[in-house]
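pasting for ref
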Amino acid sequence: MQRVESALRRELASLGEAARRAAFARLPRLASAMLTMEARGLGAPSVPHFFARDLVRISPTLSDDLLELYGRSEQVLANRFGFFGETEEFDAEIAWEPRRGRAWQVELHSFDYALDLALTFRISGDERYARHLRYLLAAWIASNPPGRAVGWTPLALARRIRNWVLAADLSRDSFQADTDFPRLFGSSLAQQVAYLAWQASWLEDRRARLVTSRALLLASRTFSSGRGVEVGQTAHALLAEAFDDGFESFPDHPQPLRQFELAAACCDHVLFGDADDGTNWAREQLQGALESLEGMLHPDGTVAMFGHEPLPSAEALTTLFALGAAELGVPQWKDLAGGEFGILPYMILGESGRCRFDELPHESWHADTRLHSESGICRLGDGNSSAMLICALPRNSPHDHRDLFSFELTVYGQRTVVDSGIYRPAVGADQEDLAAARGHNVLLVDGSLPKTDSGSGIQSRPVDESDKVQGLWLKLGRDVRPEELSPPESRGRPPGPRGSIEHQRGCFLVEGRFWVVLDRLAGSGVHRVESLIHFYPAFSLEVVGRMVVAKSGAVAVRVQPLSCGDANNPSVAKCRTEAPGWYSPAPGTRYPSQISVFEWDQAALPCVLGYVIGNKPDDLTNAQVCVASTGEILLDLDGMGYALGIL
C-alpha cells in the first residue's frame, strides 16, 4: 500500500510541476499575474530579528574560522563561485545559467554565499559586502522571471528564501539605507514564497520538503499578516510529516543526509519558530534527531561515505551540535562541536547562548555500539577511538550506490577502510565507477551482488555477549536471484550456475580489538566469490602469504581470510586493474583507494567466507571459522572460541 501511495504522489508531483512549467512557458503574463495576486495576499514583509542583539565580540579562538569566512566573501566580491571542486568567475554580469552541471547551477541559485556576505558585513561593518549582496540579489531578480529554469525548482527556491531572509536580518541597516531596494526585495521574496507554498503539498522529494519547511517557517515570520499564518501552518505540517513517514520514506538520499536534514529542520523550528506554535514539540524531535545522527558518526565526528549525494560538511555538523548543546544542554554535543561555540551559533544565540554552552561540563563523546538503527546505519564501537559503520539499507533507485552491507572502519582514530563516497553529484563515467559494486566493501558472486531492491526488507539479529563479542547478522528479507551489475569477469572460467542464492553478512567486534566480517552463502553450485576491501589512500598494501598487511604511518593492520565449507584457500590480488578504487571524502575531491580482493575461485555453496582484521599477525595466523550442527557460526581466534550466532 505504501508503495502505491508513493507512486501516486510521484505522479501527482510530476503533473503539478509539469502544469506549472507549462503555464509559465505558454502563458507567462497570465501565470505571473496569478502569482503576483498570491504574493499580495502575504502582505508587506517585515523581517524580524532572527539573530541575537546581545553580541559583544567573536571569540579570539575562532580567528581561523573568521579568516575562512572572509576568504569566501572575498571570492564572492570578485564574482568567483566554486561548488563541487569547480570554480566559475563571471564579469560584472552574472550568467545564472552557466555551462555547468545541474547540481552546480542549483548551488549558484541557492545563495548560501549571501549568508556569508551578510555575516561578514555584520561582523566587519564593511559596506562593500552588503552592497555586493544587494547587487547579486537585484541581478538575480532581473534575470530570473517566476517559474522558469533551475532557480525556481523546489530545493534551490527553498534554500534561497531562507538565505535571503537571514541575510536581510544581518544586513537590515544597509538594506534600509537604499530607498529603492527594500521594495524590489520584498516584492520578489513574496513571489518566491507564494510559488514555494503553491507547490509544497505536491513535493515528492523528502529532502526538498524538509528544506521547504525551513524556508516557509522564516517566511511566515517575515509575512506575519495575511496568508503568512497559512504559510507557517504548512511549514509545521511538512516537518511533522517527515517524522510520521519514517526513514523508509526518504529513499533517494543517503542516511546521514536524511538525519542531518531532519535535525536541521527541527533546529530551525526551535530557534526561529513562534514559542506558542509547536516549539516544545520541535525541541523533543531535535533531541531524538541529534541522538540518531550521533549513531552515524566515526570516532572523529565525521559521517560515513554511504550514498550518492554530498553529505553535510564538518562545519555544518559542528554548528548543528553546538546549537543543540546550547539549547538542550547535552555536554557530549559540546565535544562533537569541537568544544567551540562557532561564528554562526554565536550570531544566532548571542552572549547568553555562549554562556550556556561554556557552562556545560566537558564530557568526551565516544562512538559506542549501536546495533539497532532505524536509519539504516549500524555501528560497532570499542568505546574509545575505533569503530565500524555498516550500511544496512537497500537500493531504492537505479542511481543509488550499490553499497548495501558495505562498511567503513576507523582504527585508533585513523580512517582505515573506506566506502567510495561521491566525486560529484552528476551521472558520468567517474560517478558510475563510484556507484558500482566494486566501489564498495562488498561480496561479489560471479561478478554480481545479491539483489538490493526496495521490496526486500532488511532483517537483522544482534549478537551481544558482553565484552567478548558484539555484532549483528544482516540479510535481505527473501531469497532472490543475483542481480547483474556488471558482466562476469572473464579469466578463462565460466560463471557459476544462476540459481537462487541467499546471502547473509555478519560484522563483529571480538574482544574489543578484532574486526570480523563473514558472508554466509546458501544455495548450490560452484561459484567464483570475491570480497573487496578499500583502504584509505594513505595505506600501502603488502601480501604476506595469505595475509594482507596495510600500513599507513604508525598504523598497521593485518587482514586474514576465513573460510568454511568446500571453498578453496583464497588468493589475494592487490589493486587489480579490473577493480579500480576511488575514495571521495568531499565533492570535487577524489583519491585512488588501495583495494585488497580475497578471491575464492571454486566456492561450493553453501559456505561461510570472510576475514578478520587485527593488529598482531600472530593473533590471526590460526584464525578459523566453522558451522556447528545447530547452524551457529563458531570462530576460533587467538586460541579462544567464540559463538557468533546466526540469523
